[in-house]
Amino acid sequence: MASKIISEVHKGDFLKLDGELCRVVEVDKKSGGGQFGSIVHVKYVVLSTGSYHDKRFNPSDKVDVPEVQIVKCVLSYKEKDTFYFMDESTYDQYEIPSSVLGKFGNFIKENEEVEVIVYEGRAIGINKPDKIPVKVEQTGEVSSGTDKSVWKPALIEGGIEIMVPGFIKTGDTILVDTEKFEYLGRE
């Protein structure tokens, strides 16, 4: 397994931290002043559980970088709490528990192409886009007057409820952040 200085780590990189395979979600590098040294603050998701963590490092710390493969696959089917993906060029099949995909699993449709992350011959997750367009299936009315800055709940495709601005109507297509599942804007 190769290693890398933490100050060279970027969003989207794969690391092995505390024995777990992780993907970096955010990196914040802060210069120190006076008696305080510089730090690198890394937010990451543990791929086996889908849980988010953050950790602070000295900029000269080294971290392990696992060798992962990105394989283009299509969703063959979903059974109970497992998604089954197939590499159409080799017909290899990969299983990913829905707990690893989280809410994003609601947006993957059969025969849709995704990039599966493979580590040591086993699928451990998928590459998610930063944002996705989704249709608003249902939304209520703004309850307080005509103020356009008011937010209201909306049910989007995939059965997930998020908060949207008051001007969004049922049937609109909006952009949603795939990490936080928050409204980003109209498509």
List keywords for this structure.
187 residues; mainly beta; SH3 type barrels; OB fold (Dihydrolipoamide Acetyltransferase, E2P); 5-stranded antiparallel beta sheet; 1 helix; flat
Helix content: under 10%
Supply the CATH architecture of the largest domain.
Roll
Q: How far do the termini sit from each other?
A: 41 Å
Q: Would you tell me which CATH topology of the largest domain applies?
A: SH3 type barrels
Our Rg estimate from Cα atoms comes to 20 Å
Order of helices and strands: EEEEEEEEEHEEEEEEE
Shape: flat
- Please identify the oligomeric state: single chain
Unreliable spans are none
Largest sheet: 5 strands, antiparallel
The total strand number stands at 16
Description:
The protein folds into three domains: 2-65, SH3 type barrels; 69-127, OB fold (Dihydrolipoamide Acetyltransferase, E2P) (Beta Barrel), CATH 2.40.50; 131-186, Nucleic acid-binding proteins (OB fold (Dihydrolipoamide Acetyltransferase, E2P), Beta Barrel). The chain starts with a strand and ends with a strand. By secondary structure, the protein is mainly β. It contains one helix and 16 strands. The strands form four sheets. It has a five-stranded antiparallel beta sheet. Strands 14-13-12-15-16 form a five-stranded antiparallel beta sheet, with no helix packed on it. A four-stranded antiparallel beta sheet has the order 2-3-4-5, with no helix packed on it. It is flat.
